[in-house]
Amino acid sequence: MTNDPDAPARPALDAQTRAVRAGRRGDGTSLAPVLWPTSTFVTPTVDDARRMATSVGSDRFYTRYGNPTVGGFEDAIAELEGAEAARAFSSGMGAVSAVVLGLCSSGDHIVAQRQLYAATQLLFQAVCPRFGIDVTFVDGTEPGAFAAAVRPGKTVLVFGETPANPKLDVIDLDALGAIAGPITVVDATFGTPILQQPLRHGVDLVLHSATKGIAGHNDATLGVVAGSRELIDWLWGFAVLQGASASPYDALNAIRGIRTLPIRIRQQSESALVLARALEARPDVEDVRYPGLPSHPQHELAMRQMSSGGGLVTFDVAGGLEGGRRFVEAVRIAQLATSLGGPETLVTHPASTTHVNLLPDELAANGIGPGTIRVSVGLEHVDDLIADFAQALDVAAAGPVPPSVS
Question: Sheet holding 346-348: strands in order across?
Fold first, then answer.
């Protein structure tokens, strides 16, 4: 985006068009993204080197500072999020840790929702106290909980995640964006910029594990933060020291993924809704969670701030741990893996993978049971997925095969 008041006004374009057009910095006449694989660049003079070494966002000095391919990816995310700027990182947790440690100091206070990706929760629980940063956890679905926990003059950051991993809890973005004083941040990985734009609700920063739906092909590991130029410039200074800089190769793959992001999200959302309805009809399935279902606890809120329900479905298999284990090991089209947002449908058992480091009471507080399954719906035909899930649920319901008697 541009802040130049004299720049000619551009027509408002649909996200589908912007995804195709955005992020072409340095591409010249090439339709495909151009890869700048270099780690460093030749500088003509000492004065040029000094200027680039002390300028925010130099992209032809040293790739830890910036890179044209990475810059193209950042431009595309800023365009889709309605942001002034963005900064890419080598992973989603690189982005999360840069926001937390780049903005907060010893003696500061953070308010975070309880329903979080486990690595983010552990960063707040285990790392922040080592730096003298106090964290208060709240139920992000409870109206007013974020604002009530803010300590005026002490709270620097209010951190939310929506839809939340793995039970797809939805928080009110308008309420979060209305909090005055601290910087508000939303991890919108499950939503992507296509389903929701937290900045348009007054939130200060939005971040993503772009490894997931944004890149969308399981071939890039990236994080990204978008927001105002002032905040991104501040984070840029910390990021250069942190060193979790995005690879140009991964940025190239992510730009390619962005070109088809709206189409993929639309197809995955349509299939996820059909699959969720089919799961709700099964007596051996409990607590189906999908924002697009009327049964979701925050369905009306989700439909106000999301363009569709997204490509993630979460449910509980009857039979607890063994039922969940038998299900994920019995699927044939879906595959057992811990990522999401790609073309393949993936099933994940959060209690033994993404959230394995949480204590039993912490799992329970997040609504994660021993039979909880998270599904990332891919691009296969939904009828094939429903048949695959049906046979796997039948296997789970049948129980273990008894040992043969000779």
Answer: 285-289, 312-317, 372-376, 346-348, 335-336
DSSP string, 69-135: HHHHHHHHHHHHHT-SEEEEESSHHHHHHHHHHHH--TT-EEEEESS--HHHHHIIIIIGGGGT-EE
Q: Which of 315, 280, 272 is nearest to 166 (CA)?
A: 315
Return the percent helix, strand and coil in the chain, to nearest 5: 40, 15, 45
> What order do you get walking across the sheet with 134-138 strand by strand?
85-89, 223-227, 205-209, 183-187, 155-161, 109-113, 134-138
CATH 3.40.640.10 holds for 15-259: yes
Per-residue b/e over 226-253, b at no fewer than 16 CB within 10 Å?
bbeeebbebbbeebbebebbbbbebbbb
Residue ranges matching CATH 3.40.640.10 in the chain: 15-259
pLDDT of residue 353: 78
State which residues of the chain have pLDDT below 70. Answer: 1-11, 401-406
Helix extents (H) in 123-260: 145-149, 173-177, 192-195, 229-242, 248-259
Please state whether the peptide bond connecting residue 129 to the residue before it is cis, i.e. omega within 30 degrees of 0.
Answer: no
Neighbour count for residue 260 (Cβ, 10 Å) = 16
Alpha-carbon gap, residue 319 to 325, rounded angstroms: 9
CA dihedral 250, 251, 256, 257 (to 10 degrees): 70
Q: CA of 203: how far to CAs of 82, 148, 239, 308, in Å? A: 12, 17, 21, 20
Look up tokens 């409990």; give the residue: 286
In this prediction, residue 360 carries a pLDDT of: 83
Distance CA 210, CA 308 (A): 19
pLDDT at 6: 59
**Residues known to be catalytic:** 64, 117, 187, 212
In the chain, list all ranges with CATH 3.90.1150.10.
Answer: 261-398
* Class of domain 261-398 as given by CATH: alpha beta
Residues comprising the chain, all counted: 406
Helices (H) and strands (E) in the chain, counts: 15, 12
Query: What are the DSSP calls for 268-327, one per residue?
Result: HHHHHHHHHHHHHT-TTEEEEE-TTSTTSTTHHHHHHH-SS--SEEEEEETTHHHHHHHH
